[in-house]
Amino acid sequence: MRLIRRRSQRRKLFLLMSLALLFGLLWAIKSQSAPNKLLYGAQQTPDESATPAVPSDTAPLVIVLDAGHGGHDPGADGASGKYEKNFTLALTEKVYQLLLKEPEFKPYMTRTDDTFIELEDRAAIANSQQADAFLSIHGNTFTSDTSVSGTETYYYELGSAKLAQAMQQAIVKATGFRDRGIKQEDWKVLRYSEVPAALLEVGFLTNAREEAFLLGEKGQNQIAQAIVDGLKNYFQSK
Predict the structure, then answer these.
(1) Per 3-state DSSP, what percentage of the chain is helix, strand, and coil (rounded to 5)?
(2) What is this structure's pTM?
(3) Element (H or E) spanning 139, and its range?
(4) Residue-wise over 44-65: b if at least 16 C-beta within 10 A, else e?
(5) DSSP 3-state assignment of 183?
(6) Residue stretches of the chain with pLDDT short of 70
(7) What is the domain range of residue 11?
(8) What CATH number is attached to the domain comprising 113?
(9) Residues 66 and 12 in one domain
């Protein structure tokens, strides 16, 4: 009798273990086939859902755009009395919008309104983003002689000379302004940069003819496209 009971208990224990194993296998199969909603939700952001996914082997190039001056620092007074800080912000926004349409680029702006940012902090933004290129955009001035004109581009580290040259060539081609060349200079916004950096003096706001082009919608659109083209040329030649 005891032997029969023991056999019966063993059968029940074996049956329970078999059922537990079966349920475990079914749960594992179901978990593998279902999407990991928590991970997907953690990775996705509103911006990412609105733009095409970029393959991991072609990560976009990070571009940090700096609109020169801002806030209590108006920059140059143009021939018409308009401030450089407003010109640089308008042009930088146009470059930013064009870069957003290019899947190979991921742009950032150091300022998006009339705010003053310390020069070293502008470079720090580019450094923190590990930018592939950092561009500080300006309008030039020479009050002693308002006929002075042209485009010039500055760099600090020798490794940034190629970037400066690419930007200079593209802007001069688009504007027809006098080519004043690229120049090495110890500007703070460049010196603090740990990434390839160039400061663009697009044209002279104190020159009435150039200022009209720089402040006009058509001129800014041409310059913005030239900056994008210059970036493309730079990275294609690397």
Answers:
(1) 50, 20, 30
(2) 0.77
(3) strand 133-140
(4) eeeeeeeeeeeeeeeeebbbbb
(5) strand
(6) 1-57
(7) 2-34
(8) 3.40.630.40
(9) no
